[in-house]
Specification:
455 residues, mainly beta, Pectate Lyase C-like, 2 domains, 15-stranded parallel beta sheet, 2 helices, 39 strands, 43% strand, disordered N terminus, binds calcium ion
Length: 455
């Protein structure tokens, strides 16, 4: 196979003579949550009528379970949580407690809305077994995979029976895991300290055939595992709107083919971890990511697409992380501050290759983004780490504006072999601070440098 060096064009870099500390550009802060949708007009099942009491310290699990069972009978019901704090816990005698990922509430019917009076008013507060504080109590399992070393349990599991479940909505509620980010990313959790990613401790997880999930005007916070979990590749058509997803040791959102609008994702291991293999785009607009390792992680074959527009990413290690393969990526009009890299592309070689067959990174449009970095951290705006023969084709990197910082370069490339496939990579009309290097080839690269650079 012959690898051709494409023309890498660096025409039109504007070397600003005078730059401010900030990248400038339009302030793209997400607008306030002004739109409150009414939701479907289903008959209401008030959890208080089933015996729940949001004003006391007592366990409300049985009452809420009963309300859910009633809603499942016919579907098209709203399970309503009046203002208050509803305390819930998994049970040791639940059959599913013996599984690696037990949960408090199973939802096995369609068209059910869980609704409160607002995320600051109606709260479901998680405890672990026997209503114990999950911060100090957890169960050590005999799991040998390392993935579920400890468990506390999760809150909602949608579709655990395997029957199709459609249209489950969470509106105006807080789902509080009662045990926030420990700062450790140890997978499976630490049996001694309870820190790390307890993969059982999730707010909402879907199972098998659960689809069409809406999370609107909610706060989902203080979990150790993923907060919204869609099972990796499975498309569960989740929409997250006007919501705050925060504080966990896993990825805040781990789901495929989702829509996120006007939401805040903060203080998590990753903001969103998304796999696009299912002819369904992932779109993220008008949202903020703060204090995450990577704000957006995306792996997607040629049937998937990622669009991120008008988002604000602050104080994350990286803005966008693409591993192994990604195609049809649109990053436009985002404001990225205090990151080491805005775009990080790495080929993990064997990872997932047998499953998808398509490799490389093609059709990227990185336009009109504004990026700045603190003196302490900035490395490179766009980083490519490619191995032999991994193609990077049809990239348009235009009209991005870079603020001052301790940058090494605008684009930094490492490649670990002689096969160098860059084709139709167009870089023009980007605004860089004075003295910033446009393109840098990593000195550790083992292959030959790319084709002609036109500055
Ligand atoms: Ca109670």
């Amino acid at each position: 196979m012959r690898h051709r060096f494409g023309v890498l064009i660096f025409a039109g870099f504007t070397m600003a003579a005078c730059v401010s500390d900030d990248a400038g550009g339009p302030e793209a802060s997400p607008p306030p949550a002004a739109v409150v949708s009414v939701g479907p007009d289903y008959p209401v099942l008030n959890v208080v009528d089933f015996g729940a009491d949001g004003s006391d310290e007592e366990d409300d699990t049985d009452a809420i379970r009963e309300a859910i069972r009633e809603a499942e009978k016919t579907g098209k019901r709203t399970v309503y949580f009046p203002t208050g704090i509803y305390r819930v816990a998994p049970r040791e005698d639940d059959p599913q407690w013996r599984t690696p990922q037990p949960y408090v509430f199973a939802v096995d019917g369609s068209d059910i809305v869980f609704k409160g009076d607002g995320p600051d008013r109606s709260e479901i507060l998680f405890y672990t077994l026997e209503m114990r504080d999950p911060e100090r109590n957890w169960t050590v399992t005999d799991d040998r995979t390392g993935y579920f070393t400890i468990k506390r349990g999760g809150l909602f599991r949608l579709g655990p029976s395997g029957r199709p479940v459609r249209n489950i909505q969470f509106r105006s509620l807080r789902l509080n895991g009662n045990c926030g980010r420990s700062g450790s990313s140890k997978v499976g959790g630490d049996p001694r300290t309870g820190a790390g990613r307890d993969n059982s401790h999730k707010a909402i997880s879907t199972f098998k055939d659960a689809k069409d999930i809406l999370i609107e005007n909610c706060t989902l916070d203080r979990w150790r595992g993923e907060i919204v979990y869609g099972g990796g590749y499975r498309v569960d058509r989740t929409r997250i709107i006007n919501s705050r997803i925060a504080d966990c040791d896993g990825s805040a959102i781990s789901t495929a083919g989702c829509v996120i609008e006007n939401s805040e994702i903060e203080n998590c291991y990753n903001g969103i971890e998304n796999v696009g293999f299912h002819k369904r785009p992932t779109t993220i607009t008008g949202s903020g990511f703060r204090e995450c390792g990577n704000a957006v992680v995306y792996i997607g074959d040629r049937t998937g697409a990622l669009k991120v527009e008008k988002c604000v990413i602050t104080d994350c290690q990286r803005g966008f992380f693409f591993a192994n393969l990604a195609h049809h990526v649109y990053l436009r009009e985002n404001t990225v501050r205090d990151v080491e890299s805005m775009v990080f592309v790495i080929d993990h070689r064997a990872y997932l290759k047998e499953r998808v067959g398509h490799e490389g990174f093609s059709d990227f449009f990185i336009e009109n983004n504004s990026v700045s970095s603190p003196d302490r951290g900035g490395k490179t705006v766009i980083y490519w780490q490619l191995h032999r023969g991994v193609p990077l084709i049809n990239w348009w990197i235009t009209k991005n504006k870079v603020g001052k910082g301790r940058w090494q370069s605008f684009i930094h490339e490492y490649f670990g072999g002689p096969g160098h496939v860059l084709r139709s990579v167009v870089v023009h009309e980007n605004e860089l601070p004075e003295g910033m290097e446009g393109y840098r080839l990593d000195p550790l690269s083992t292959g030959s440098p790319p084709g002609p650079l036109v500055q």
